[in-house]
Write a structure and sequence with these properties.
2 domains, mainly beta, Maltoporin, Chain A, six-stranded mixed β-sheet, 22-stranded antiparallel beta barrel, 3% helix, elongated
Length: 908
């Protein structure tokens, strides 16, 4: 009847939520009608009520901490006036069917996987990194906290772009890494590498996120709602454990890790809400024989929830985390005295407020506020040698300084140095000395978001409309790199306070319609929206991007077969390191006799000229990913099959590299001297040398193309043997390449003459291809709360080949005399000065034979008192060696080593 009217009739809809076993009411459960965008909380009697709900069939979702989510369809009819009853089961290992794998799901209309608390417990995850192996196409690995955890979605090999483009959302607010500036000398090295551990420019380190306080995790791999921005790859949504639950103590141990956690949820009374807390401590050693190298983590969280007059729901959290990744000074390392550490201490605040107004059109208004402040300290020390030259602290371009306090003049009386107008300290380094550098960062991330949900039905179409705006600020108040400028860790490096770097601001608006209509007795769902992002609004370096997105699905056979597809644009703002990079500093020697023997101290003289270049790229664009997919879902009884094909192309990816504008010419005056008694030598001009120098700058030259087919087949449980069979996997192809030219330059001759610079074509990169499956056999015995699973992971194909093989020979060169570019005609002779080495084995595709890996896990729950779990990775200790086709004689073991661990938990 509702479908035959232009506008559906509306009635009040009520219901009760009870616990399945004892039939006791569940107060505080969240009841949601997602198609209408409305939700409410059950009262002390377990009752919920919605005002003026359209009649007809709709979805209902009921959640409560520690309980299995209830998701089903209900028929809201004018004839049914009595409240409907719903029953929730406790989420434990005594259920008839226990979900211990990622469940193919739909977050909104996007392709996603949902990972439940039981799946996390059975996996015995130590951080957010571990649970990613449950996704289709992801490979299993041994749990570890000894290396940064980087997200990787729909890509064979993880890289900085894919990780940086994955948004992690906790309690409705994104975790930002945009203000992380714990990086090295990007202008000189062209990379973000540091001597200590850092994930700057490559996404959030997932080791920092403990999973013991998580209720569930949703991973969006497809086209997300326009509510989610500042991303390119996907979204990881963390749903924290908030509410009332018993004290739970967990202990984990494996050959490299020891972890303990405690959590509890309190009911403060009807008028005062609920408060939950959790604490976690973990310590990991890369090698027990080297106790000086390891990782430690401590986290703590408080979550407060309260319902005001059944209209206003709030969840407010306070968090603390601290981690230390360190290589302490090894007493046996007397030669180099290496020591490095990375310590991060953070404080976070988050509040999520939902006002269920339920007006005629406006249904819900949500406000999310968050702040995250972190204190970062990266340290490195090492004895370095082969120095013995003069260094300067000069910061201004054209500064000429010497090791003497007074100005230096040549034999004709012309002034050489200019320290009067460009003060700079100098020092002649010993040939070997201990360098120490500390990098201080204090990033602050602020986030505010307001979203309104509307509902309107007309022309037989149900429309849930979402509109909102958000503001993000990322800024760093740290001191930056701190070291003795006269004993620097490397040449061409200067200190720069991070307070000199402007804040990164983002203002966004979005609107989306989630429409549903029944056509030929089959449901058509369309999610259509657009997002408008302004990066650094009002500033020259700012930019804007519009991101349209659409998802749609249609039932070909009601409740059995449906098809779906989607297309969308996602965009990621450049982090601070790319918007405001360090300057490039070069120090050139005009004269130096400090290394000569037999000279008195007052006779020694070093003169250095400093050149400074701004490396900022004023034309830096915003990285965008074009995502499209198509798939189907088939349900046959208890069996569920899902297949999705996807195509993604990320353009304008960020990197540090060189282009034609990165190279400059500089005329350096060289002096010769005649020794004088009691003072510095008498100087005359020896020659003028033309210096060719180049630096690295932010570029948009990276492209990631990811194509694949992922599938998830759940064959259901065979009741007679209480065993389930789940098969998932993916065929994945990833092309990662550069769109910029590459440059090849040889070292200058002994007399200081620079060589021409070879210019090579674009397209250098790699192509990865992999087809893998994972068959999980899950057997459970509900009567004793016992679950055992065997995972058989098979890598059927695994190949890698280099791209840009046609770039064997230069396409041109830059003249060392004037930097003019001269193209090279095909077939003409090529100077050895610009011809880079050709590695013939690059043309060989490296491929490997099929490989199997068996992992075993078991979990035993002891009624309501606790339980224990045990796992063995690489059950049969299979580590076959396979010879590389590209490098004959080199053998590789692709399976992880045999590894085991156990976990015990107690409930009070």
């Amino acid at each position: 009847m509702a479908q035959n009217n232009s506008k559906s009739k509306r009635i009040d809809y009520r219901g009760f939520v009870f616990e399945q076993g004892n039939k006791m009411p569940i107060p505080g459960a969240t009841v949601n009608l997602p198609q209408y965008g409305i939700s409410t909380i059950t009262d002390s009697d377990g009752m919920f009520s919605f005002k003026q709900v359209p009649v007809g069939v709709t979805d209902i979702s009921i959640r409560f901490v520690g309980m299995l989510v209830v998701e089903k369809k209900v028929n809201i009819s004018e004839k049914s006036s009595s409240p409907q009853k719903f029953y929730m089961s406790e989420e434990n290992f005594a259920l008839d069917e226990v979900v211990v794998t990622a469940k193919n799901n739909r977050v909104g209309a996007a392709t996603s996987s949902s990972i439940s608390r039981t799946a996390i417990d059975h996996l015995q995850a130590t951080s957010l990194t571990d649970i990613m192996e449950l996704l289709p196409g992801q490979l299993a690995s041994n749990p570890t906290l000894n290396s940064p955890g980087k997200a990787s979605l729909r890509q064979v090999q993880t890289d900085a772009l894919n990780s940086m483009g994955t948004s992690i959302v906790f309690n409705g607010a994104p975790v930002s890494n945009n203000a992380n500036l714990q990086i090295g000398n990007t202008a000189k090295d062209g990379s973000l590498n540091t001597s200590f551990t850092s994930t700057a420019g490559s996404g959030t380190d997932m080791r920092q996120i403990s999973v013991d306080n998580i209720e569930s995790v949703d991973v969006i791999r497809g086209i997300p709602s326009v509510e989610y921005g500042d991303l390119t790859s996907g979204v990881i949504i963390i749903n924290p454990k908030a509410g009332v639950y018993p004290i739970q103590v967990r202990l984990k141990i494996n050959p490299t890790l020891t972890q303990t956690s405690i959590g509890k949820g309190f009911n403060l009374g009807k008028e005062y809400g609920k408060l939950s807390f959790d604490f976690d401590y973990a310590k990991s050693l890369a090698d027990e024989r080297r106790p000086s190298q390891g990782f430690q983590r401590f986290t703590g969280n408080l979550l407060y929830t309260k319902v005001f007059r059944e209209k206003l729901n709030t969840t407010t959290g306070l968090g603390f985390y601290s981690d230390l990744d360190a290589q302490k000074l090894d007493p046996s390392d007397t030669r180099y005295q290496r020591e490095r550490s990375s310590k991060n201490t953070g404080f976070k605040f988050n509040t999520n407020v939902a006002w269920n107004c339920n007006y005629k059109l406006l249904k819900v208004v949500r406000l999310n506020l968050s702040a995250n402040y972190e204190v970062q300290k990266g340290y490195n020390q090492e004895i370095k040698g082969n120095f013995g030259y003069m260094v300067t602290s000069a910061m201004n371009d054209g500064t000429i300084a010497s090791n003497r306090q007074d100005e230096i003049y040549d034999a004709s009386g012309h002034q050489i140095t200019n320290i009067g107008s460009n003060p700079a300290a100098t020092n002649i380094l010993p040939y070997e000395f201990l360098t120490k550098m500390t990098t201080y960062g204090k990033p602050l991330n602020l986030f505010a978001k307001v979203t309104s949900n509307f509902f309107a039905d007309f022309w037989k179409i149900k429309n849930r409309i979402v509109a909102g705006a958000e503001w993000k600020t990322d800024v760093n108040f740290g001191r930056g790199k701190v070291f003795d400028p006269l004993m620097p860790p490397s040449s061409g490096i200067r200190m720069r306070p991070y307070t000199d770097i402007p804040a990164l601001n983002q203002l966004s608006f979005y609107v989306e319609d989630n429409a549903e209509r029944v056509i030929l007795d089959r449901s058509l769902k369309v999610q259509l929206g657009a997002r408008f992002d302004m990066i650094q609004p009002g500033k020259e370096e700012g930019g804007t991007v519009i991101s349209p997105r659409i998802n749609l699905s249609y039932e070909l056979v009601p409740n059995i077969l449906s098809i779906r597809g989607g297309f969308g644009i996602t965009a990621k703002a450049p982090p601070l390191m790319y918007l405001y990079p360090d300057k490039a500093y070069y120090d050139f020697i005009n004269f130096d006799n400090s290394g000569l023997t037999g000279l008195a101290e007052q006779q020694k003289l070093s003169i250095v000229t400093t050149k400074v270049y701004d490396t900022a790229n004023k034309n830096l664009k915003i990285a965008k990913n074009r995502k499209s997919e198509i798939g189907f879902e088939l349900k046959l009884g208890q069996m569920n099959f899902s297949v999705t094909g996807y195509n993604e192309k990320l353009k304008n990816g960020y990197s540090f590299g060189s282009d034609f504008d990165s190279y400059h010419l500089f005329d350096l005056i060289k002096y010769t001297g005649v020794n004088r008694t009691g003072t510095y030598p008498e100087l005359t001009v020896d020659k003028t040398t033309k210096i060719v120098l180049g630096y690295n700058k932010p570029l948009n030259d990276k492209i990631n193309e990811n194509n694949g087919v992922e599938f998830d087949f759940d064959f259901g449980q065979i009741k007679a043997i209480r065993t389930s069979f789940i098969l998932n996997g993916a065929w994945m192809q990833s092309k990662l390449y550069s769109t910029s030219n590459s440059f090849y330059e040889k070292s200058p001759d002994a007399d200081g003459t620079y060589k021409d610079i070879g210019v090579y074509g674009s397209g250098d990169g790699s192509l990865y291809e992999r087809f893998s499956t994972n068959l999980r056999i899950v057997h459970n015995i509900p009567r004793i709360g016992f679950v055992i699973s065997l995972s058989m992971q098979t890598i059927w194909t695994d190949t890698h080949k280099y791209l840009g093989l046609e770039n064997k020979y230069p396409i041109g060169y830059l003249s060392a005399s004037d930097l003019s570019y001269t193209p090279i005609v095909a077939g003409s002779s090529i100077s050895s000065d610009i011809q880079r080495q050709i590695l013939l084995n690059r043309e060989i595709t490296d491929s490997y034979s099929p490989l199997c890996l068996f992992n075993l896990r078991l979990t035993k729950e002891i009624k309501k008192f606790g339980g224990f779990a045990f796992f063995v990775n690489n059950l049969f200790n299979s580590n076959p060696l396979e010879e590389s086709k590209r490098n004959p004689g080199n053998y590789k073991s692709r399976n992880p080593e045999q590894f085991f661990g156990t976990e015990i938990w107690f409930k009070f």
